Amino acid sequence: MGDFSSLGLSDWLVKQCKQLGINRPTPVQENCLPAILEGRDCMGCAKTGSGKTAAFVLPVLQKLSEDPYGIFCLVLSPTRELAYQIAEQFRVLGKPLGLRDCIIVGGMDMVSQALELSNQPHVVVATPGRLADHIRSSNTFSMSKIKFLILDEADRLLEQGCTDFTKDLEVILGVLPAKRQTLLFSATLTDTLQELKSIAMNKPFFWESMSETRTVEELDQRYILTPEKVKDAYLVHLIQTFTDKHDDWSIIIFTNTCKNCQILTMMLREFNFPTISLHSMMKQKQRFANLAKFKASVYKILIATDVAARGLDIPTCQVVINHNTPGLPKIYIHRVGRTARAGRNGVSITLVTQYDIHLVHSIEEQIQTKLKEYPVEEKEVLKILTHVNVTRRECEIKLESTDFDEKKEINKRKQLILEGKDPDLEAKRKAELEKIRSQKKLFKQKIQENIQRQKQGQLKKKLMKRKQMKKKKAEQALT
Ligand SMILES: Nc1ncnc2c1ncn2[C@@H]1O[C@H](COP(=O)(O)OP(=O)(O)OP(=O)(O)O)[C@@H](O)[C@H]1O
């Protein structure tokens, strides 16, 4: 493995890297950096925590230092927290340049963002939705001269999941110059390769880390098979044992919904665990504040939805617990990738119910690794089971008495309005769809029942016939 200078990086950047403890390039940096410096489009697929961010930040900074102007580079990120983290890397590594960056994400003041954009920052780091809003509503900035477009977590930006970025991406791509360098990075690029290739049109240099497994070797991947009702008791027991044994460990717990995130946070606090949460129903300022407190180890436990699954770099995080088994292997890979980063060790524990076993199998198939069972003293778990379940129920009741569900409904309506839809019409449409769906279901059920009845009738007839035959034979034998 060479050093950064031999890859063509300028001395000032090599020095800057050293100050951050980045001395030798990781494979993704070693391979992608020269191609980007040569002016090629690039698609880099490397495991979580392998230094993909610096693989695009460093060459952009080098090119910027040769011809500084704004807006030089646009980076898109699927989440707001990740956008801040990327901007920070640019700021730290680009300090000697006097780099001016600007972060454009939802949940923050739009007017001050518009002002910052009009000041022509060198680098804009944005989430697609908010940037598209600015493009639609303002003509005080131009992106027609950008040299670099970067899609971090590129596969997420292009997939049509619950947050669909494709329309916003169309708006953004519409104002960018065709002549630019496009860089796409993720730990899970391969599923969306075709869509990505249409964005990086300029015969992209494609690099993927060669490895049989898709998760890092330093990660000890475990599971616990548990009935749904005992899950929380296992969780409390696990946290208790980790905190008893290790003062300095931080834990991220992933769960499937904002409500569950909130309930688990309340519940773990009842057990005096220093817990904080991160999910999309929180105010943005609170989200940033909570993440900062977790990063600074003020709180040792972060309970999050998948909004924290990708990209976040928290070196102190030693353990990831999946309170629910992720439905997609890709999500699993990103979630457990929040630990065991940059060569450090880490543990992931997935709580698996009997209904999730098939999900574990498809995860294992994708990552080419078998999860090992995590040994637990079941006696200890059973001892706290009732206490934990009663506490959870109390927390649920407490949450129900707040306006959490109401807020969720209001947020949904706000989102629909922002998408240019009428919330009442949407609700009507949804109800009608639901009605049609349940009618179809009922119809299907009736058909099934009819088939079943017919089958049973036929079976009965057959049995009767057989009985009669037997009887006949017996009578014949007697005569
Ligand atoms: N060459 C290097 N040597 C040592 N540490 C490095 C090097 N490059 C990056 N790092 C550090 O490794 C950590 C992980 O890097 P980064 O966040 O870029 O990972 P990533 O590949 O983008 O992961 P993910 O897929 O989860 O987003 C960071 O703390 C970063 O500072």
TrEMBL record:
Residues 218-382 form the Helicase C-terminal domain. SMART domains: DEXDc, HELICc. GO terms for cellular component: cytosol; nucleolus; nucleoplasm. Keywords: ATP-binding, Helicase, Hydrolase, Nucleotide-binding, Nucleus, RNA-binding. A motif (Q motif) lies at residues 2-30. SUPFAM superfamilies: P-loop containing nucleoside triphosphate hydrolases. It holds the Pfam family Helicase_C. Residues 458-473 have a biased composition (Basic residues). CDD domains: DEADc_DDX49 (cd17955), SF2_C_DEAD (cd18787). GO terms for molecular function: ATP binding; hydrolase activity; RNA binding; RNA helicase activity. Residues 2-30 form the DEAD-box RNA helicase Q domain. Its main location: nucleus. Residues 452-479 are annotated as: Disordered. Residues 33-207 form the Helicase ATP-binding domain. Its EC number is 3.6.4.13. InterPro entries: DEAD/DEAH_box_helicase_dom (IPR011545), DEAD_box_RNA_helicase (IPR050079), Helicase_ATP-bd (IPR014001), Helicase_C-like (IPR001650), P-loop_NTPase (IPR027417), RNA-helicase_DEAD-box_CS (IPR000629), RNA_helicase_DEAD_Q_motif (IPR014014). It catalyses: ATP + H2O = ADP + phosphate + H(+). It is found in: Nucleus, Nucleolus. Belongs to the DEAD box helicase family. DDX49/DBP8 subfamily. ATP-dependent RNA helicase that plays a role in various aspects of RNA metabolism including the regulation of mRNA export and the levels of pre-ribosomal RNA. Regulates the stability and synthesis of pre-ribosomal RNA and thereby regulates cell proliferation. Also possesses antiviral activity by recognizing gammaherpesvirus transcripts in the context of lytic reactivation. This is Probable ATP-dependent RNA helicase DDX49. It comes from Mastacembelus armatus.
